[in-house]
Amino acid sequence: MDKSVDTRKSKIIVIVGPTASGKTALAIRLAKKFKGEIISADSRQVYRGMDIGTDKPFDSFDFAQDRPAQGKPKKIGNAIIIRGISHHLIDVVEPNDSFTLGHWLELAKKAITEIEQRNHIPIIAGGTGLYISALLYGFEIPVVPPNPKLRKKLEAEIKKYGTKRLAKKILQKDPQAAVFLDTKNPRRLIRAWEVMEATGKKFSQIRKRSAQPKYNTLIVGLTLP
Predict the structure, then answer these.
(1) pLDDT tens string 157-177
(2) How far, in Å, CA of 8 to CA of 207, rounded?
(3) Most buried among 32, 55, 168, 200, by the most CB within 10 A?
């Protein structure tokens, strides 16, 4: 037996790659072969109604097998059934709902546990790398709701001074965040400050990765043909 494999950890398969690289098709094939269920790791596929440009797997329907009623996908619990395979974390919130990395992690971990209880293999497929890294390396991201008043203030600040001023404030409080902080992305900067304000913690503490993956993971990387 491979001594490098910790048999106490959950076993998962992760499929990554750019849009249209065949992640869903491969995930379905593997799920059929190894009794798997698929968890979407895509930050856009969580939103109901946002079907165009999000590469949701609805074009993979087998109408004889899946029998979507009135154009709507068949569901078992919170999972959408496509080609007889359960797909999780697709169409879970409305477009105007707040949905953060913390929310996704919470739902993904719950789905993994439930899939394992059915003696199936969790297969993570998607193009949002931050979601996958956070899951595999144990980011403990708190579920912090948006603070509209704070966001409005920070948006006004960025509009007036650009991103440099807010980035400087964050890095003064948390120099270690310089390793990963996207100082030119207003949305990421605002979210970082929002989480720090709400939790009283440095963002680098929250984003700290564990030395080893949390799961026994087979990672499959796809490229465009």
Answers:
(1) 999 999 999 999 999 999 998
(2) 24
(3) 55
